[in-house]
């Protein structure tokens, strides 16, 4: 199992895996359950997020947004 972080935006999984990759992997995403499931040679692979980590990461990304020297925060959608 792998951990990932969901960030509020147009597609919560763009920060982890882009939409073309999700399609190529035949992955199924669930925002409500904060999970991604995908086929593997040994069955179904699963990634599940952590709500606390998602909120902390989102908050950290927005901290200082719009201030000089914090342009990288604009990359998190």
Describe this protein's structure.
This protein has 77 residues and is an alpha+beta fold. It has one domain. The chain contains 2 helices and 4 strands. It has a 4-stranded mixed beta sheet with strand order 1-4-3-2. The chain starts with a strand and ends in a 15-residue tail after the last helix.
What is the end-to-end distance? 25 Å
**Mean pLDDT over all positions:** 69
Strand content: 15-25%
Number of strands: 4
Classify the secondary structure makeup into a structural class: alpha+beta
Based on CA atoms alone, the radius of gyration comes out at: 14 Å
Major sheet size, sense and barrel closure: 4 strands, mixed
Quaternary structure type = single chain
Elements, N to C (H/E): EHEEEH
Low-confidence stretches: 11-15, 70-77
Number of helices: 2
Shape by Cα distribution:
elongated
Give a short synopsis of this structure:
With 77 residues, the chain is an alpha+beta fold. It has helices at residues 19-24, 51-62, and strands spanning 2-4, 28-30, 35-40, 43-49.
Please render the helix and strand layout as text.
Layout: E1 2-4, H1 19-24, E2 28-30, E3 35-40, E4 43-49, H2 51-62
Parallel strand pairs: 1-4
Antiparallel strand pairs: 2-3, 3-4
Task: Name a few traits of the molecule.
single chain; 77 residues; alpha+beta; four-stranded mixed sheet; 2 helices; 23% helix; 25% strand
